[in-house]
Amino acid sequence: MTEARGRAALVTGAGSGIGRAIARRLARDGFRVAVNDVDATATGRAAAEIDGLPVVADVGDRAAVGRMVGEAVGALGRLDVLVNNAGICRLGAIADFPEADWRATFRVNVDGVFFCCQAAVPSMVRQGRGNIVNIASWSGKSGAPYFGPYCASKFAVIGLTQSLAREVAAHGIRVNAVCPGIVGGTEMRARVDDAARALGRPTGAERVGLIPLGRLAEPDDVAAVVAFLVSDEARYMTGQAINVTGGLWMH
Questions:
Q1: How does pLDDT run across 122-149, given as a tens digit for each residue?
Q2: Is residue 104 a contact partner of residue 90, using CB atoms and an 8 Å limit?
């Protein structure tokens, strides 16, 4: 892929799981990477692995996001790539889903993407180029029982992606989404599986038989697609929502 030396990236929710894999991949490809998470310990650990810049912030807090992006641009000199990965997933029937959990889901999954994009776009406009990748989900393309609020939030992420892509294309900024399927080996997977068991629903591992490629996704599978989208190899792609599902969802 295109040489990325000198370019700078910010990855949210990168203290573990998919975000951490994305930060590692971008660093390996030559990006200087600012690593964000709300957990200071996880942020520091993940940043140290790649000699990155730790930036602790809650993406659901507009003021904190502004400070985070300002710190990243100040330290790295520019911002070429923003990966909005931070997210949460809480399960439950829509009819009795707690309002607090609904609002928490949208605060992180939707407000977080919105605030980070708002904070990053001005810098990218000044540069005359930039890349934003929003981590959505296959759940943003099809509703699923007990995943209603999570699905709604990821549908919203895809809508934001498409709208922003049209707004900033003339400034040389591309905006795409990645839609992972069932990803194994992460803290979120463990939490979701626990919640699924409590509801009498199948875990991720128990759904492997539904996946044509015969295995759960790994965080690195998602990171590889992000790396492609932010490279010049994908220079004519914007407004897309790319499935990384092993064939579980085809669209």
A1: 999 999 999 999 999 999 999 999 999 9
A2: yes
